[in-house]
From TrEMBL:
CDD domains found in the cross-reference section: MDR_TM0436_like (cd08231)
UniProt keyword terms in alphabetical order: Metal-binding, NAD, Oxidoreductase, Zinc
Residue ranges of every copy of the Enoyl reductase (ER) domain listed in the record: 23-366
Gene designation per UniProt: hpnZ
Name of the protein this chain belongs to: alcohol dehydrogenase
Cofactor: Zn(2+)
GO CC, any one term: cytoplasm
EC number annotated for this UniProt entry: 1.1.1.1
PANTHER family assigned: ALCOHOL DEHYDROGENASE 1-RELATED (PTHR42940:SF3)
Source organism (scientific name): Algoriphagus marincola HL-49
GO molecular function: alcohol dehydrogenase (NAD+) activity; metal ion binding
């Protein structure tokens, strides 16, 4: 079917514009792209706002292997402007309509597939990951650093609460959904002591979510003292010293650690934090998404202390639903809005990436309004 047959809010002949990643440290290439025909179950959104995730920075710097060329960007929110034939339902089985403001899972998958049946839809063999697909002209609008995003059938869609700002909502389908998944894997937290390793965007989200999940104490470990201190505004009750001796004393005084949410991906931190777990403790790793050395772990200690180590890559759709409900309820209790420090226009995406490389920024936003091809693009 053609766009003229679909339910839409598009101007005749309207085209999309995108900034294409060409390789590590290379300039983004501006492209004007046609709006593809929508198949049944597909949705076209006009991108309202996107944020540069740390994994985008890893890809741009070459620390993480990714396809080239590629349309990066997966922390996205958008407004529905066209819908394919038939009815499209969101995660809660409500109809999606033109004009809805939505977010979506960072991947599309076969909901009837074997991995979905196992509860691991993000590992489906046919998974389509937004912001991570090789760029081609069969489905070019697959990432957030563009004026439009073409959502495939099999993507779980979520209507966004209008109470959330763009800056609060954009990281939902990566950062907050990932942490919601980590807490799901950790099990009940009421009355438990939690250690959050890394006080970046993931870590701050973890502090807030564990606090609201009933944790007795929330300790934070980060080599950046300013970031660690920031965690107190997100519910952290103990900021661990960078002195190993003082760290051990602090952990002992709080009664040890029952659950670790590891967001840094730093091998030394991953190894050291395991020493703080109580008998029967659980560690969930979410930060190790880039190339690094192998870990050195004392297997006997893991066995004798009955320690459980779990890894989470991406999340399941229910986690994004949980994250949205959390942020809708608590976005005024914690300063999530302040974590997006600056907003750049899409045409200056290269400058935005340079700016975002500075570690003191949690997120940099991209305002993805349509821009003129006569401008100089960086």
């Amino acid at each position: 079917m053609s766009l003229s047959d679909s339910k839409m809010n598009l101007q005749a002949g309207e085209k999309a514009e995108a900034m294409i990643f060409q390789g590590p440290h290379q300039a983004f290439e501006w492209m004007q792209l046609p709006i593809a025909e929508l198949k049944q179950g597909e949705v076209l959104v006009r991108v309202l706002y996107a944020t540069i995730c740390t994994s985008d920075l890893h890809t741009f710097s070459g620390r993480r292997t990714g396809p080239t060329p590629c349309l990066l960007g997966h922390e996205i929110i958008g407004e529905v402007v066209a819908i394919g034939a038939g009815q499209v339902l969101d995660y809660h089985r409500q109809s999606i309509a033109v004009g809805d403001r939505i977010t979506w899972t960072i991947y599309a998958h076969d909901h009837q597939g074997a991995m979905a049946a196992l509860g691991l839809p993000q590992k489906s063999p046919d998974v389509f990951k937004y912001g991570h697909q090789p760029f081609d002209h069969t489905h070019p609008l697959s990432g957030g650093f563009a004026t439009h995003c073409h959502l495939k059938s099999g993507t779980d869609l979520f209507k966004l609460p209008l109470s959330l700002s763009y800056q609060e909502a954009a990281p939902l389908n990566c950062t907050h959904a990932t942490i919601a998944g980590a807490l799901r894997m950790a099990g009940g937290l009421i009355g438990k002591n939690v250690l959050v390793v890394g006080a970046g965007m993931l870590g701050l989200s973890a502090c807030a979510m564990t606090t609201e999940s009933g944790a007795q104490a929330v300790a934070v470990l980060d080599i950046n003292s300013a970031r660690a201190a920031k965690a107190t505004a997100f519910g952290a009750t103990v900021i661990l010293s960078d002195s190993p001796q003082l760290q051990a004393e602090q952990i002992a005084s709080m009664g040890g650690v029952d659950v670790i949410i590891e967001t840094s991906g730093v091998p030394e931190a991953m190894e050291k934090s395991l020493d703080y777990l109580n008998i029967g403790g659980i560690c969930v790793w979410v930060g190790a998404v880039f190339q690094q050395r192998d870990l050195h772990i004392n297997a006997e200690r893991v066995v004798r202390k009955l320690i459980t180590i779990k890894g989470l890559h991406n999340y399941i759709p229910a986690d994004l639903d949980s994250a949205i409900r959390f942020l809708e309820k608590h976005h005024q209790d914690y300063p999530f809005h302040s974590l997006v420090s600056h907003t750049f226009p899409l045409e200056n995406l290269g400058l935005a990436f340079e700016f975002a490389q500075d570690s003191k920024f949690y997120r940099v936003g991209i305002q993805t309004n349509k821009f003129s091809s006569t401008k100089k693009h960086k």
